[in-house]
Every structure is written in structure tokens, then in C-alpha cells.
Amino acid sequence: xxxxxxxxxxxxDAMLDATLAQYVPEVxxxxxxxxxxxxxxxxxxxxxxxxxxxxxxxxxxxxxxxWKKSGYKIISVNPxxxxxxxxxxxxxxxxxxxxxxxxxxAFFEAITPCVKPSDVPPPASDSNGEDYSHNGAPYPxxxxxxxxxxxxxxxxxxxxxxxLFSSQSPST
Length: 172
Hints:
Blueprint: H1 5-20, E1 29-36, E2 41-47, H2 56-69, E3 73-78, E4 85-89, E5 95-100, E6 106-111
Antiparallel strand pairs: 1-2, 2-6, 3-4, 4-5, 5-6
């Protein structure tokens, strides 16, 4: 590709900014690190809004529909209940990934194709919420009436489901 890492980073940022602008209501997010390799780089964003297990399908659906509408090809979907993910590729060779991690935290990564080495400035956009880009983001700590709906409480109120089969015979 005949562009520099700086230009590729700006394109990756635009992809991430456009994706994060799709959520209604909006989610809070922070910039994460930039990983630079020999001829490509990755930009990361971490969502600080808790995405409940009950809303993960909505969140992934908004993402996948937007990426398809933007002309990206979906190349991988992991339907895991705990850590679902979706990866897409643009016609220019950029990859973009959404993964839901621990405690409903969403992580985005945009990976550039191989480009000419250059200096890479930090992202130009501001975080939407508290900026954890220099300290590392904690677990998600922002509740949303919509995105966090049905999320487990902070206490340990989970109990295992009843056994499928009882060792006792039914009473007659």
C-alpha cells in the first residue's frame, strides 16, 4: 500500500470512530494502546460501559450491520456466550475486531495492512468518557440503562441451575 503508518493510523481511527458512533444510546470508551510492527499497526479502544450478557447480541448486531453497510466483509464470528467476537475486513485490507471480554467489557481493534514506516501520532479524537489511555483501563465501570440492563449485580448472587435429572423417583 502506498501510504504511511501515520495515514494508516488515521484511517484505522476513522473506522473505530465511525463504529463507536453507531450505538444508541452512546457508550463511553477510552483509547488504548497503539501496537506498531515492521509494516503495520493496530489501534485499540476499550468500552467502559458495561454491556450486559442480555444486551451483547444487540451490541454485536449493531456492529455487524454497520460494518456490512460500510462495505466490510465479515470474516469471523465467535458466538461464545461469555466472550463473543466479530471480525471484518475492508476492501483496502484493514481488519477491525470487536470482542466482549470479562465483565461485559467491549474491546475494539483496527489493524492496518502493510504500509510505509513513519512516525505515528496519538489518535486525534478524544475519549468519550474518562481517558484511561495512559494508565490502562479498569474493568467497565459505567452503567447504562440500556446497555447494562439485566447485568449481574456486584454481589455473588449466582446459584447453579437445578440438576436435569433427579436421583429420586417422582412421587405418585
